[in-house]
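Example protein as discussed:

>
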Amino acid sequence: MKQLVFACMLILTITACSYGQNKIFFGNAPSSKAAQKVDIAITAIENLYVDKLNSNKLAEDAIIGLLEKLDPHSNYMTPEEVKEMNEPLQGNFDGIGIQFNMLTDTLYVVQVIPGGPSEKVGILTGDRIIQVNDTLIAGVKIKNTDVMSRLRGPKGTTVNVKVLRNREPKLLNFKIIRDKIPIYSLDASYMVDKTTGYIKLNRFSATTHDEFKGALDKLVKQGMQNLILDLQGNGGGYLGAAIEISNEFLKQGALIVYTEGVHQKRENALATNKSDMQNGRLVVLVDESSASASEIVSGAIQDWDRGVIVGRRTFGKGLVQRPVPLPDGSMIRLTTARYYTPTGRSIQKPYENGNQESYNKDLIDRYNRGEMISADSIHFPDSLKFSTLVDKRTVYGGGGIMPDYFVPVDTIRWSTLLRELNSNGITYKYTTQLIDAKRTAYKKQYPAFEDFNKKFVVTNQMMNDLMALYKKDTTENKDERLTEDRIAKDLVRSGSIIKAQIKALVARDIFGESEYHQVLNTEIAEAYNKAIEIISNEAVYNKLLSGKN
């Protein structure tokens, strides 16, 4: 009895202990019996356990254990993870203003952000950063996160770097004053032809609508009447940004999305204003990595028969997370509602008791059962059948947005050689060497992107040099290197993709990110080229919207 009384006294000053009924009753403590039970357990462990414990770690483990039983998207985040998550969504961070890749233990500057601190002091694309302050970062195994922690820092602080530049005999010293660096959610925007524009978004952040509207206005001035909106690989972001983008295409008063949960009443998001893109043909590109906010936009466009969705079934992330800040700067992202498209379709794909393993394997399972190759492999029960709001086409719920026109994964041109070149960064490394040697000549030879796009050719000699670098790079792993016969066969199979990647990387270095995507889209992107076919042919476009095959 003395031991039990002692335990009760330890639990909290706001609790009262009742021995007679073997229960602990709380005053201002957790309201439900379940919450009381958890609180008592943690307090007892902290005060009675035989060994010394880390209380913070104990609390984190308890929270993680609770959340992982709920659904795949409710999770716990440390203070560091909260900051890392928020930066790309807020649209800026403090740093030096470069994009980089780590290849063979060397930091290559992929792009220098215009107007940023690095550009101001003379850092160039293709430079290798060898040393940051007093720390050598080249030739040693170092994680990307460690490099970023050294380059980033509060606005106004200084970082000293030593740079290796092609044809320079000595390392160059640069003193960079950190500043606010914008993170762009718009990858590319350009005119496909005289009347069709293209915009690609990589996320939905606080700055997405402003970026999108700026690009839209610019393209309209260039004569754009129709638009291809590329949301492939876009994993989502802010709900507000998705609503603002949808608002550009839908008529005033149209329902964009609604959310609802057991503890959250239905909330509707409606289109509120007019824009330049409420008329004209619209094609939205999606794939299996398009999720959340991307699905809200494509779902609203499809339900209102406003445009044609092209690609593959989207990811199926339709759960709404509410942030619950904790005292130490950590956070719980707790699912509180579901997203529904205007017809009432749930975007969320099925999940079982928060089982992450089976949930994460869903895309692999889709591939294995043939869904990535053929639309005929995708089956929906009649109970998930819905009708669009204008043309009364049949669409389906049950997870993700099924496109109006299906484009299979390109398995014909992909090969082991292509995978090895990309995973080991060999194509990028070769292109960096090529540009280092010929940047000045290329800029003189191709003063405008139009000239480059028409005339630049990846020669057989370039391909031979690339393969020589591949063989040199894999010298230490001869047993794993592909045979000459296999290399020859894979080059026939994947040569067009490899050449397109080289050309695109050269274009990015000389001209910019939009030109990089324009090359890849034109040369190898099947969904993009199918979108052009559809949007350029009014009869085909209207037939897809009518649902008549």
Remarks:
- Residues 1-27 have pLDDT under 50 and may be disordered.
